Backbone:
């Protein structure tokens, strides 16, 4: 039986709900508005950056541009920067109101403003520069005490060095040709900077593969490819490890169904079969599940021995 007290409580609840609904709807509308503005700001930035680069190349090349065109271009850049700043501030304030501290709010704002693919590409460059320093210092990254480093770079180093030599030769030939045709010094500097940066990136890729080997430890098997791929497989999920050669791999990191291949020079020679899948993150951020993993090692026999010795050590302990 419904009493007057039940009716009163229900009426009070409905009254409170009617007060909260507009505030909740306003919060949803505000969040959706921020998202729309964020997408507009990102699209504007992607449109303006290439335009600004073209203008910069033309100017340093000595091309005379109309004054109103330059003013319009700089006004567009200024407007986009103001829009980006406003969106970043709104995102930061929203994170702070949600209880995040300054560091967490700044990080969250950065992650929402910059797409994951762009962040990962920037991370590749940073890791590559760190790898160059490690290469010069003859040190390796992420190999703890007691773990076994398994190299994989020898199969491709000679090819990469030939590519590097060709790129350096191209840099010199392009500069000679530009001088011969009387190109402005600004244009030559642009080509030199682009070609020099490309040479540096190839060097960094070589260094990353040398200084970031696979790692076999008592707790996990870490499968890597330079600065581009890093997968940790817990030892308890490994059902078996076999030496199986495959010379027709397509791509560097490929996934078909639940089979992952991390190839070097289009080949793999080790296979891990797992009791349950692991989550792998591909170079540009896509997440996939893998239950079978094929990868390459310079000395697959030594890698299998390391896997078995660490497994025996775990069993004894």
Residues:
């Amino acid at each position: 039986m419904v009493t007057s007290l039940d009716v009163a409580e229900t009426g009070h609840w409905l009254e409170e709900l009617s007060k909260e609904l507009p505030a909740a709807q306003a919060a949803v509308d505000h969040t959706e508005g921020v998202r729309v503005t964020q997408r507009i700001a990102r699209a504007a930035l992607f449109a303006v950056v290439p335009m600004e680069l073209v203008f910069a190349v033309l100017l340093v090349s000595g091309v005379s541009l109309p004054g109103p065109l330059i003013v319009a271009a700089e006004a567009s850049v200024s407007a986009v920067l103001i829009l980006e700043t406003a969106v970043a501030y709104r995102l930061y304030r929203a994170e702070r109101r949600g209880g995040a501290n300054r560091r967490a709010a700044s990080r969250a704002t950065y992650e929402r403003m910059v797409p994951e693919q762009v962040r990962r590409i920037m991370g590749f460059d940073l890791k590559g520069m760190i790898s160059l320093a490690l290469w010069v210092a003859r040190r390796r990254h992420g190999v703890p005490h007691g773990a076994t480093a398994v190299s994989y770079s020898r199969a491709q180093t000679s090819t990469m060095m030939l590519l590097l030599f060709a790129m350096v030769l191209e840099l010199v030939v392009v500069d000679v040709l530009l001088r011969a045709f009387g190109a402005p010094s600004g244009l030559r500097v642009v080509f030199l900077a682009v070609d020099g940066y490309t040479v540096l990136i190839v060097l960094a890729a070589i260094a990353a593969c040398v200084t970031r080997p696979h790692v076999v430890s008592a707790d996990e098997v870490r499968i890597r490819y330079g600065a581009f791929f890093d997968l940790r497989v817990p030892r308890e999920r490994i059902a078996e490890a076999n030496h199986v050669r495959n010379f027709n791999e397509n791509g560097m990191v490929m996934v078909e169904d639940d089979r992952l291949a991390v190839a070097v020079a289009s080949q793999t020679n080790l296979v891990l079969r797992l009791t349950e899948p692991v989550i792998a993150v591909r170079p540009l951020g896509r997440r996939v599940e893998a239950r079978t993993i094929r990868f390459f090692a310079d000395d697959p026999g030594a890698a299998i021995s390391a896997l078995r010795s660490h497994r025996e050590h775990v069993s004894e302990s």
Notes: The beta strands are 148-150, 214-216, 220-225, 229-234, 238-246, 253-256, 259-262, 268-281, 287-295. The first helix runs from residue 4 to 60.
